[in-house]
């Protein structure tokens, strides 16, 4: 355990040192971007040069700011992008695009960050590099002196006794300073990330605007999904159970006409009607199960998912610590998302094993569906994964996919939830 923790500590520290070197390069780029932005503003009245120059410079600044946000997220400080969406019909250049950029508060927050960000990035980046570099210098100093002195005798003759002592002390001191530099490097990078967040994170108003935009999109997706679901139910009723019930009525009517003059044929028709009624009942049960499975209403999410795993063609295990019941819509969304995930495993993965994990932390339900298949799943191809994401988004849930070529594939989902009241639980269990 200690060796693993030591390796992780050293690995994280070395990554932070490398990130510090990169941050120095990125910080230097802030200075020319600052100058270009000022020039584009000053040259706007001059033959309209700014109308062409400002959008290009702003695009570069946003690219640079997004790179800083990405590095901050890599160090555990996520920063959402606060930019307003581009209005419809905005040309690559012109007054509308210029006005959209100039009136976006995020543009000016990016500009205000350029100089302070350059200073903070340079200072913290240099510190991140300088401490371990000083330690390396101390480690290399003693062997270098011995090499230059061509052996101990020449070394002792050329250097006074004080230098000899300093040379031997430089090795442990260098190791200690190197260890210190690797240890503090992640904290220095995180301090830089928090400084970036101070300037580049969305304001409260921007967060509310982004939230409204997200809810608008998810509501539209939910309405479309519900409309599609209603069309599916209507189609299944019309083509399945309704057609069979119509045929059943016609068969019974014909049997009524034949029961006096041809009882044998009438009995045969009634037997067919009984078979058709059984088939229609089965189709109705399947339709109801697709709307809200009875097993979900009776056993809750834990029991319903375990039933899904038992019916899967691929061996599937379920790891769950769920107790009690959740709100019915949340249970339904989680159940159908997991069902779609397992269906994708059976159809596309070529896996020999799958698993489902369900854990609740506070008011967040964490779900995971994984397999040992061939991998290569893509959110943009097909409708299964996209449908899962839309279903979760309707409840402010999120989904992420990890599926490198060769596998494994892991679909991770988070869904806000709250326990049902006893009254809701009682009604759910007795429906």
UniProtKB/TrEMBL annotation:
The keyword Transferase applies. Residues 22-200 form the Putative sensor domain. The chain crosses the membrane at residues 12-29, 35-61, 119-148, 168-188. Residues 229-296 form the Signal transduction histidine kinase subgroup 3 dimerisation and phosphoacceptor domain. Its EC number is 2.7.13.3. It is an enzyme of class 2 (transferase). Keywords: ATP-binding, Kinase, Membrane, Nucleotide-binding, Phosphoprotein, Transferase, Transmembrane, Transmembrane helix, Two-component regulatory system. It catalyses: ATP + protein L-histidine = ADP + protein N-phospho-L-histidine. This is histidine kinase. It comes from Paractinoplanes bogorensis.
